[in-house]
Design brief:
The protein is an alpha+beta fold and 465 residues long. The protein folds into 2 domains: 17-340, BirA Bifunctional Protein, domain 2, CATH 3.30.930; 352-461, Rossmann fold. Helix content is 40%, strand content 19%. The strands form 4 sheets. It has an 8-stranded mixed beta sheet with strand order 1-5-6-13-12-11-7-10. A 5-stranded mixed beta sheet has the order 15-14-16-17-18. Strands 2-4-3 form a 3-stranded antiparallel beta sheet. The relative contact order is 0.11. It binds one RNA strand of 78 nucleotides through β6, β9, β12, β13 and α12.
Length: 465
RNA sequence: GCUGGCGUAGCUCAGUUUGGUUAGAGCGCCUGACUGUGGAUCAGGAGGUCGACGGUUCGAACCCGUCCGCCAGUACCA
């Protein structure tokens, strides 16, 4: 028989128990925080009609949409983010409460080049507010994301904020035609990464990167560039200071939204040590219209932004006449997972493993296991068919159980069960070189417990009281 | 997408320069001994069409070509 090569699709990955467990924990923390802000859960399908997705992400991103054919030969695609599906459902179900505060997590798909921490299928966890143009909405989503990241414990991070309104004003100020704005934004966004000198080259004649690859320039005039440099010379960081400079260079109107937001952020005590204004932030998606934000980790900048979002006041207009301005923030769960690195703490998947020795008393083992579960103890009944204890204790070790419950003929006769504390046993094995000595110690740490007291005693041993 | 490097066991790699009998190591995995106990120790074992296909040659893991994949930089982005 020809064997099929077991392999996963490029850019897709499997999460084995340890990682899957950590991801679940991150998700449940974020969910708890978002629910505490009053966001409502929603789920939407992985597939959308292609026309729903086209035209919103920009030219470069549209190429990265995973396209498929339905069995009826309709053009469909895997969702590229959770934002456009949200825009669709608020238009489609117009009896939702407004403003609609929604949270959603799930896979999104982008057909770009996989990199460390970047995959073709990845999980986003979004919080959005649809139906208000007030910067209260920005404040709530930023505050929720900050809280969630703090509870996850990612270390120090910064929320960088800018506004598309400011960026549009810069393009106007610099004399660049409005239709080139997106190109200019993209270059400005790279300042932190490639430096002023390369920015200048990319705005004009282009440059060669370290690998010798040519990056075409935008061909702007010297006057354009010198005005853009006026803008880039602005300070970043302290919000009040940035607001002052923006107002004097580009006019009050360009930063009215950032000014309102700043005041609200003060009110929820998010000061410039955690939420800063950075005039170079642009974000890549075309649909943003107002404030944009991204989160970077202070000591792990190499993972890129671990969350991003912004205001998109025109997106819902594609699907309905209703006026539904919106804002959202999305956490990149897989990037967080990558940035958190190898978790040194051990993952336990069971408190107790019930071993099996007498194959003609299987019903008894099933009863014991269910008794423990009913008492709130995570219990794994050994399901393999070996009779030896050795294999079973090895298994208990692998799933990192705290205790093993051993019941053989001796125990059945005496009406007791033997409980072995596996953590204590591990400690004991370290200083016994000889097997005899180790076995002896191993037995000493075991306890016999009357069968009917098992659940209660185990709860005490496991500190579950 | 572009540029460069690299693909040998589950993992980390040696062997490729100078083509030549059954392709190796460590770790891991499996079986057994120590006779109802994880570790340690000892004894054994499985696992590779040397990324794929084609070419050169009497002969290719090794040389050449194409493709695929991985890694780094770059583009783009969560």
């Amino acid at each position: 028989m020809e064997r099929i090569e077991p392999q996963s699709v490029k850019g897709f990955r499997d999460l084995l128990p340890r990682i899957a467990n950590r991801k679940n924990r991150i998700i449940s923390i974020i969910r708890k925080v978002y629910e505490s802000y009053g966001f409502l859960p929603v789920e939407t399908p992985a597939l959308e009609y292609l026309e729903i997705l086209l035209g919103e992400y920009g030219e470069e991103n549209t190429k990265q949409i995973f396209r498929l054919k339905s069995p009826e030969e309709q053009d469909v695609a895997l969702r590229f983010d959770l934002t456009v599906p949200l825009a669709r459902i608020v238009a489609q179900y117009n009896d939702l409460p407004k403003p609609f505060k929604r949270y959603q997590f799930g896979s999104v798909w982008r057909a770009d080049k996989p990199d460390p921490g970047r995959f073709r299928e990845f999980t986003q966890f979004d919080a959005d507010v649809v139906g208000t143009s007030s910067q209260l909405a920005e404040t709530e989503v930023i505050s929720a994301v900050v809280r969630a990241l703090q509870e996850i414990g990612v270390g120090e991070f910064i929320v960088n904020v800018n506004s598309r309104k400011v960026l549009n004003a810069v393009v106007q100020y610099s004399g660049v035609p409005a239709e080139r704005s997106k190109d200019v934004f993209r270059v400005l966004d790279k300042l932190n990464k490639i430096g002023m000198y390369n920015i200048e080259l990319e705005l004009t004649k282009g440059r060669y990167d370290a690998s010798g690859d040519f990056i075409p320039g935008l061909g702007l005039t010297d006057d354009n560039v010198s005005r853009i440099k006026d803008y880039l010379a602005l300070p970043k960081g302290d919000r009040k200071k940035v607001l002052g400079e923006l107002a004097s260079l580009l006019g009050e109107e360009s930063c009215s939204d950032l000014k309102a937001l700043d005041a609200y952020l003060d009110a929820v005590r998010l000061d410039s040590s955690i939420v800063v204004y950075d005039p170079t932030i642009a974000r890549g998606l075309d649909y943003y219209t107002g404030p944009v934000f991204e989160v970077n980790l202070k000591d792990k900048p190499q993972f890129g932004s671990v969350a991003g979002g912004g205001r998109y006041d025109n997106l819902v207009k594609r699907f309905t006449d209703a006026e539904l301005p919106a804002v959202g923030f999305s956490i990149g769960v897989d990037r967080l997972l990558a940035a958190l690195g190898e978790d040194q703490s051990e993952t336990s998947f069971a408190d107790a493993v019930v071993t099996i020795m007498e194959r003609d008393k299987l019903n008894e083992y099933l009863k014991i296991a269910n008794e423990l579960r009913a008492a709130g103890i995570r219990t794994d009944l050994y399901l393999g068919e070996e009779k030896g204890l050795r294999k079973q204790l090895q298994y208990a070790d692998r799933v990192n159980a705290r205790v093993a419950v051993i019941v053989g003929s001796n125990e059945f006769e005496k009406g007791v069960v033997t409980v072995k504390d596996l953590k204590a046993g591990e400690a004991a094995s370290k200083d016994s070189a000889q097997r005899e000595e180790w076995l002896k110690k191993s037995r000493e740490i075991q306890r016999e417990i009357p069968r009917r007291e098992l659940a209660g005693e185990l709860r005490k041993l496991l500190n579950l009281e």
